[in-house]
User: Fold Alpha/beta hydrolase from Rhodopseudomonas palustris.
Amino acid sequence: MSARFEPITGRYMHLELFGRPHRIYVEEAGQGVPLLCLHTAGSDGRQYRALMNDATITAQHRVIAFDMPWHGKSSPPEGWHDEEYQLTSQQYTTMILAVMKALQLDKPIVMGCSIGGRIVLHLALEHPEEFRAIIGLQAGAHVDPYYDLNFLHRPDVHGGEVCAAIVSGLVGPNAPTKERWETLWHYMQGGPGVFKGDLYFYKLDGDIRDRVAQIDTGRCPLFLLSGEYDYSCTPEETMAVAASVKGSEATIMKGLGHFPMSEDPEAFIGHLRPVLAKIAAANK
Assistant:
């Protein structure tokens, strides 16, 4: 049987972040309007591989996903062994804008899930002029802690397996077996303490409840897509954001969970296409 290659290009980008050199891994496919995709806590850009393989999406969009520092193929910066990784709102925002500038993206659509869904709310509030539109997947303004984060980084616990175990209940019950386990495998491969460090942003530093109503969709449209099976960002929490942000549009995706783009790509893309079409029509 002959080999088949996917239409995805992967490259390493050298970029200075926070006063230190970083080596960032970036994948992309397609051409047209840039669609910058942000992965979930503790995982990496592989979550968007199905999107990059969908010809109906890539015919109109340059789909881009990068692994944040410490994640996937993006190594931590030099000296990482002498510090504790801990993601903050300011770092996250700075990182995204720096990657956009390095890739010379002109008013991309930005789409993020989970922590990515939270940070896009920050971007909508603080940098709306930089984006054509913003899509939040599993995007709540806050989350109440429901487990002890210390279990995510202990010498007597297998970090990758416990991270995957924690998020396994967030995958929708109808997710195909192959995609369910690929989603969990990405978590099993995470570096020590990385998931815990991401959740510092998700559970503490990134709480935007007191400011989310200030988002102006007249400056940048906001679309919210959330799976119904999610106790980390419940449908009620997504709808609360929608109710707070005048002009936003929200859809609860039946049968999907916290990782819609990777756990059931076909179902998710069916929800995404109409949103992308609406964004395209508004920018003609």
